[in-house]
Fold this protein.
Amino acid sequence: QVDVSLYQTTTAFKGYENYHFDDIATNFSTENKTIFDDRLDENGQAEFSPGLNATDAPGMLRASFNTRVFEEGGAFSSDRFSVDFSPYDSYVGILVPKGEGWGGMLQTGKDWGVRVASVDKNGKPVSRGKINVKVYKVDWRWWWSDDYDNLSRYVSSEYYSPYMEKTIETKNGFGKFNLNVANEEYGRYLIRVTDEESGHSTSTLAWMDWPYWEGTGANQMDIASLLQFTSDKTKYNVGETMTLSIPSPGQGRALISIENGSKVVDAFWASTTKKGNITCSLPITADMAPNIYVNVTWIQ
């Protein structure tokens, strides 16, 4: 009796280390099934085809085999081994450029070149004449993000129509398309690319927003935005001075709060009069050890 279980693994190919080849919008669950259950021949041997099939896989899989050979009295010997299993003849990968904003955010209103790769199951480049591209706008997450928060519903339900859809081709394993999101459409986007010939899809998430120095909404400053402020170093000794660089969307005040996890160590205001960066200096004191958190709230 031979049982097999298929497990999801990371799909990666040499020379395409920065590309993403797994589909985060596919729900794949591991199942154990019996693929052979019969008597051995007079030589104690048997031959069969595993017949593995997983057309809904997000990418490469790992097949784990458990074999048991029973004696007439009921005792048995067992053996386990695992092998890589490719459910597709070819794979498509995606490479989204890294933006300059917070968390790699991409700026709205600009053309971003998204690269696409197509390779066979051995990682050799192949050309494809029909690569389907769909971009979905998904729910916004201000404070947390789970790549697998039921993203499959966007591609399986007619309710969630794509924000953008087009067909491209790849030559010698590479292709490209432009992604441009209007300022008022800022948010989180699911980019999904499908090789129509093999059936494999890959997908990834991208964050699109206005540049932080203008603030989300720019001319509509009633909309909240995230400030991307920085410090001049990551570690300080007592007696040194921390310098903060804070973006200012315009005239207003910035409330700067220094906290150590249990209390507010210090808090003060800094006035801003124009767009650009302002700097603030903070003396490092003993009550800030072992670490502190800096919170900045900018108010019109």
